[in-house]
Structure formats: C-alpha cells, structure tokens
Design goal:
This protein has a domain at about 40-130: Immunoglobulins (Immunoglobulin-like), CATH 2.60.40.10. Helices cover about 20% and strands about 30% of the residues. It has 1 helix and 9 strands, in the order αβββββββββ.
Length: about 150
Amino acid sequence: MNNCTVNRWGLGVVAGAVFSLGVAAVAVAIPSDDSFVTVSGNVQCVGGSYDLSVLDSDIQPAVSSYYFADGPDPDSAVAISSAQVLGPVNATASWTPTTSGTHYLWLIGQGRYDQQVTVGPAVVNVLDTSDPACAAPASPPTSSWG
C-alpha cells in the first residue's frame, strides 16, 4: 500500500514539474508589444511619418551599428531604415508605413564578432487612410468681422 502511495506522489511531482516547464516555455514564447522600441503618435496611419526610437541604455554596449526592420520575426523582417552607427545617443529612424494592418518593428544590431542583437518587437496596428481615426483634424472656422 505504501509503495502505491509513494508512486502516486512521485507521479504527481513529476507531472507538476512537467506542467510547470510547459507553462514556462509557453510564457517565454509569447511575443510582447511591451518592448524597448517606441513609435511616435497615438494612431499610426498609412502614409504618415513616425519616429522610431530605442534608448541607448536599452541596447547592449557591444552593438556598433543598427537598423530598424518590419516583419513577424527578425530573420524575415525587411529593413525600414539604413544601417547607422550607434553613438552615445538613442537609436532613431523615421518610418512611413505603406500598408495597413499589424506591423512588428524591430531594432536589429550588429554586435561584436558578427553577433546579431535584436530589440523588440513593438507591435503596431496601422490604419488605412479611409479610417475615421486617420482623418485630418478639422480647421477652425474662419470669421470675418466687418
């Protein structure tokens, strides 16, 4: 009887450990839009111009050059800025989206010994120009006093 109890207890411990590892693996794999890449503006629309930035303190000191890219993962992302040398200032670039939908924005850096360093993604939903949120603000009415 005791042997059976120990085996059930041992099985419970093993199952709990496996479950915990599975949960940890899932938690690591979930992409987060809470990245160090920031995008200017409250609403991003096709054709608008936005500033991308990453604080220099959020980039590994070994990064010597970088560019910003757009894509679901860093390996397939398309460059949206030219390569720039990282100085003692924030990494920045201008971005003008040409398509609506979800964009994944990365900073991809070149580190020592040709090591690639990635920061991001910032997940941005770009609206079509026909969306009311993209309408230009109305001009204030003019009046003539006479």
